[in-house]
C-alpha cells in the first residue's frame, strides 16, 4: 500500500508547524524572561492567553460559521477567566495553556481529520496545521511556566529582592554586582 502524496505533504506541513511552534515558544520565553520583571511576565502571559483564545472568534467570523459562535464565545470566556486567575496563580496559567493546546488539537482534528467531540458546525474551521502549531507552542509555554512559578510567586510575595531582579535583567555573565 503506497502512501499518498497528500499524506506525505500533510505530514511535512505538520512537522514544520510543530517545529515553528516549539521555536516560537523558545524565543518568546527567552525574550520575556530577559525583558520583563517576573510580575509583569506572569501578567503578560495571562493577557496573552486571553488574546490567543480570541483568535477562534476571528476564525469564526472569517470562515462565516454562524453555528460556532456560541461554543467559541463560551470557550474564549472560559480562557479569559483562567487568564484572570493566572495573573496571580502560576498553576492557572499552566493549566490554561495546556487546555488551550488541547482546544487547538480538538479544532485540528475536527477541521482536517473529520473527528469531533462536537456536533458538525459547532466549532469553527481553522487554517491547516494551526492547531498543531498552537498545541506545540502552548505545551512548551506551560513547561516554561512550570519552571518560572517559584520566581513569579516570590515576586508577588515580596521575596524577590532587588539583586535578584538585577540578575534577571543582567545575567551573571554580564552582571557586575551593582544595582541597575
Explain the overall architecture:
With 180 residues, the chain is mainly alpha-helical. The protein has one domain. It contains six helices and no strands. The relative contact order is 0.15.
* Major sheet attributes: none
Shape verdict: globular
Secondary-structure element string? HHHHHH
Overall tally of structural domains: 1
| Alpha plus pi helix count | 6
Backbone structural class: mainly alpha
Radius of gyration (CA) equals 19 Å
pLDDT average, as an integer?
89
Strand content: under 5%
Q: Please provide the count of β strands.
A: 0
Helix content: over 70%
How would you describe the oligomerization state of the chains in this entry?
Answer: single chain
